[in-house]
Amino acid sequence: MKEVEELNLPDGLGYTDDHEWAQITGATVRIGVSDYAQDQLGDIVFVELPAIGDTFAKGDEFGTLESVKAVSELYMPMSGTVMAVNTALTDAPELINQDPYAAWIIEITPSASSEYAQLHTAASYLDLLKG
Amino acid sequence: MRYLPHTPEEIASMLATIGKESLEGLFDTVPTDCRMTTPWSLPAPKSEWELDDHLRELAGTMRAGTDAKVLVGAGSYHHHIPETVRSLAGRSEFSTAYTPYQPEMAQGTLQGIFEYQTLTARLLGMDVVNASMYDGASALAEALLMGLRIAKKKKKVAISKAIHPHYRAVVRAYLRPTAYEVVELDYLENGRTDLSGMADLEDIAAVALQSPNFFGVIEDLEAASVAIHAMDALCIACFTEPLAYGLLKNPGQCGADIVCGEGQSFGISRSFGGPGLGMFGCREAFTRNLPGRLVGETKDLEGRRGYVLTLATREQHIRREKATSNICSNQGLCAMTAGIYMASLGGTGIRQLSRLNYDKTQYLKEALIRAGARIPFAGPVFNEFVVEFPRDFGPVSERLLAKNIVAGLELGALYPELAGRYLFCVTETITKQTMDTIAAEVRA
Questions:
Q1: What class has domain B83-341?
Q2: Under an 8 Å CB criterion, which residues of B touch A?
Q3: Which segments of B46-186 does DSSP mark as H helices, in order?
Q4: Does the distance separating the beta carbons of B322 and A73 come in below 8 Å?
């Protein structure tokens, strides 16, 4: 497993305590998991995705990631409605291990854009991981 | 050998350490109204030979021995058990091992369970079958919970009233502490489930039918699954007699999403009601939501065939409270037995035996009609059917019992509206002579 210093935590994303990231892409927000999350889980073998049109509040569970050794729930960094899911992950869940920031999981239309400001920056997320 | 190894001094010392005055004090946390206050009322102890006599006497009051002709099924079926089953399932490698906790050490057990899964999947027409559940009733309850998991936000399930009453009781027990609601669908005059009102139901995650149902009547599973899918619910097909699928179109072909039921018919003795075997399968799309253990076939580093427990992330040692079920034991030996039974008969053998059950059942049905009985449910049947006699059947039943023939199950206790009607079951073990004797007594 990686040392904290080795983790790739790009700027320009908002991070949660549960290790999801959110990225504003125009009118929508893409959501995935951080390098730390994929590294901790190990080889990801299955991604359970929500249905397009599902609406979740911030903190709601929207799916699961399953690795060879653990299962982890995915929680919404922001409230919103699912506009797209990354179906490429169904056949190739390992994309998340390969590049957790390219391998977005869902894309939502946020219902409260102001929630983005409540997320960690890359720097404060790194502080959180350092404990 | 001392069975109570602690001396009074040791007990006193242990109580002093934890700060309790007496052994009673250990149970302080159990509410008083949950505790037994009356003393045990047990007879005096018996010697081993006295106990043998006592048990023989009790056994003698039952018509469960092989010399009795039992025409009662109702969820537990008297079938011939081929000697291959006793010989192979009785091997100590199988019979002494509990559920494999260090599974890959026991390749023989895993291979046996894998073969059970494969044969059961073919019989039921399912993509995936698990390593078994406790029995048919708990399998149905787990199937309904699985349906609710898949549907996610729906809160209700519907089950046919023609499903075995004991199974429905187990379903209610499973779901009572949850927020989910169980709706029962009534049966029609022909003994099949009434699906007409189903479209008006809302919020239904899954609908369960039994086929052949408790009255022996074969449901129209194909039409039912179309109607159930039209309301965006999952179709669960349940069974108590898997042998029927040797002859009938299997539930998978009929459109069922989850199939579950009792496998006792396949080489497992009735043993006064247990242990049974919960058979459980589903379509591939729902594998992640399947409860119970699953054996898979793979290759080792040197390319040799091997067996593993697979998709274990669904199970409680990894998934904790989100596990697909909290069953941690399978019915390993019963599953193995059923696997050996199916392999002993083969596809052709199962078909022939199934046909024999059907033909004999038709013979008795027609003989009883000629003797003046009426068949209240017009739906097609496999090896069970409901009968209504022109006069009180009680005295006839007594005369047959004297001849060691157990003729049918009176339905009043399970379905008050069917009081006085009898559920008959005819398997390959019932001879033409026995059936002729029954018909003659009805006429007498």
A1: alpha beta
A2: 288, 313, 318-319, 322
A3: 48-60, 83-89, 92-95, 107-124, 136-151, 165-175
A4: yes
